[in-house]
Every structure is written in structure tokens, then in C-alpha cells.
Design a protein that fits this description.
The chain has about 200 residues and is of the alpha+beta class. It has one domain. Helix content is about 30%, strand content about 25%. It has 4 helices and 10 strands; from the N terminus they run ααβαβββββββαββ. The chain is globular.
């Protein structure tokens, strides 16, 4: 089963339309959250990555990478059967003290003033929210953003749609690469393949 899924992922990632779509959506998330392109990430800032729904223990591998690097990872998930469609999920892998936590079902929330969005994990829970800070990790803040959450979620979604429909995300995969992690026991292997649109 894992081999069949891996083959399907390989086939999907070889489709230029799928890769272009995934990178455009990743670029839109990056612009809304950080105000910059994905390739403009600085050393200690969170890594924004895109891939397929994490199954079969793949989230443990992403967590292990986050644990070893200490760098937050915002993961934009796509359906391997519909990689030309919109993302199906947004999550955060984050090392806190001596453990790596996975915040799932994240949403982007934009303030009314048009500033950078914040990341809100599972808005029904009590996980706080995360704000981007240039040059460092995401800042973990308590509680949810002030006021009604829904308007801010709609603003962030609308901003992403505007970006996706504009010319700003043309060549979104420029300078990006497909990074594949695999493991044998506790050893983690990384394979990086540059993308071209």
C-alpha cells in the first residue's frame, strides 16, 4: 500500500500543472502569512512546505525533521488525487521545549487593517495563535484573535483568492524544490529536486 501511494505521489509531482498549482497556493499562503515569497525565507524563520495528505506515519517524519532542526514548519496539504485543486489542509509542526507538537486544522486569519495574517490552529480548541516575526520563529500567543473570528478568516481566504487570480504568483515555483524525506530506522534521508515551471 505504501509503495502504491508513493508511486501515485511521484506520478502527481511529475505533472507540471499539479506542481504549478501547489506552488501558487504555497506562495499565496507565504504572502498572506509573511508578506514575502517562499524563497525569501531567512535562516530562523518558519519553513513553508507543500505536499500531500500525511499518511502512514509521514507526520512522524515531518515531526522528526522539525525536532532536529528546531525550525517551525507550516505544511500545506493537497489531495494526491486532485493536486490541481485547492489545499485540503494547513498544519504547523513546532518544537516546544523537549517535544515536537503538531497543530492541525490551522486557518489563516487576517486583521481588518490588511496586515499580515496569523495562523490559528483548530479554532475550536484552546491552542492560541501564531504570528510571523521576521528573522525568528512564529510567536505563540494565547487565546484567539480579539472579536469575532469569522470575518478575519474570510479576509484571509479572500486575500489568497485575490493573489491566486492576480499575476503576482506567476513563476511561483522559481527557486523552489521538491524535498522528499525518507527514513530507515532512525536515519532520515533528504532528496532535493529543483522545480521548474
Amino acid at each position: 500500500m505504501r509503495d502504491a501511494r508513493r508511486q501515485l505521489e511521484e506520478l502527481t509531482i511529475s505533472d507540471p500543472a499539479a506542481v504549478a498549482n501547489m506552488m501558487r497556493h504555497l506562495a499565496a499562503v507565504s504572502f498572506v502569512l509573511t508578506g514575502r515569497r517562499v524563497i525569501e525565507t531567512r535562516e530562523d524563520e518558519p519553513r513553508l512546505t507543500a505536499g500531500f495528505r500525511l499518511m502512514g506515519g509521514a507526520h512522524h517524519l515531518c515531526g522528526a525533521v522539525t525536532s532536529r532542526t528546531g525550525i517551525d514548519q507550516v505544511y500545506v496539504a493537497f489531495d494526491v488525487d486532485d493536486a490541481v485543486g485547492p489545499p485540503i489542509g494547513l498544519g504547523l509542526f513546532r518544537k516546544e521545549k523537549h517535544e515536537t507538537l503538531v497543530y492541525g486544522d490551522c486557518r489563516l486569519w487576517s486583521p481588518a487593517d490588511g496586515g499580515r495574517a496569523i495562523l490559528v490552529p483548530d479554532p475550536t480548541g484552546d491552542h492560541g495563535h501564531f504570528a510571523f516575526q521576521p528573522g525568528s520563529r512564529l510567536k505563540h500567543l494565547p487565546g484567539l484573535p480579539a472579536g469575532n473570528l469569522e470575518p478575519g478568516l474570510r479576509r484571509a481566504a479572500a486575500r489568497r483568492v485575490r493573489l491566486l487570480n492576480s499575476g503576482e504568483l506567476r513563476n511561483a515555483s522559481e527557486g523552489c524544490a521538491v524535498t522528499r524525506f525518507s527514513n530507515v530506522g532512525r536515519k532520515i534521508f533528504v532528496e532535493v529536486t529543483p522545480l521548474s515551471e
